[in-house]
Amino acid sequence: MQTISINGIRIQSNDYGANIIISDGKISVNGKDVKLKDCKDIKIVGNVHNIRCEGRVEIHGNVTGDVDANSVVCGDVGGSVDGTNVKCSKVGGSIDGTNVSVR
Fold first, then answer.
1. Kind of pairing, strands 2-6 and 41-45?
2. Dihedral in degrees, nearest 10, Cα atoms 63, 23, 28, 70
3. Which pTM value belongs to this model?
4. Which residues are bridge partners to 72 per DSSP?
5. What string of DSSP letters covers 4-64?
6. How confident is the model at residue 79 (pLDDT cuts 50, 70, 90)?
7. Domain spans of the chain?
8. What is the pLDDT of residues 27-51, one digit of tens each?
9. pLDDT at 84
């Protein structure tokens, strides 16, 4: 069992990494809704599988799948990254972004 933290709220996940969707002011983790006060700037601590976010997401951990967000700051990404502003460590797939920084 893995625990991730989204804006300080701890969430248990049975998977190695959660599938997270942030859209229309709502957050869904592995198909379950999570209530947060602010869904515009998201900070996640822990590894996730896939993430889709309409705003800015900062992930203190790795992503085993894909990331699709307006602004992305994260560690390693196993899949592809799509975002206007992208700052990641290693990316296993493609990167589609305007301002890209790979460390």
1. antiparallel
2. 10
3. 0.82
4. 57, 86
5. EEETTEEEEESSSSEEEEEETTEEEETTEEE--S--SEEEEES-EEEEEEEEEEEEES-BS
6. very high
7. 2-92
8. 888 888 887 776 677 888 888 889 9
9. 94
pLDDT number for residue 14: 65
Pairs from 6-12 (Cβ < 8 Å, separation ≥ 24): 6/34, 6/36, 6/42, 6/43, 6/44, 7/36, 7/37, 7/38, 7/42, 7/43, 8/43, 9/34, 9/36
pLDDT at res. 38: 67
46: left (phi over 0), alpha (psi -120 to 50) or beta: left
DSSP H or E segment with residue 99: strand 99-102
Beta partners for residue 20, in sequence order: 29, 51
Give me the pLDDT at residue 39, please: 67
Length of the chain: 103
Tokens of 90: 């290693």
Determine the Cα–Cα distance for residues 52 and 91; give it in Å rounded to an integer.
16
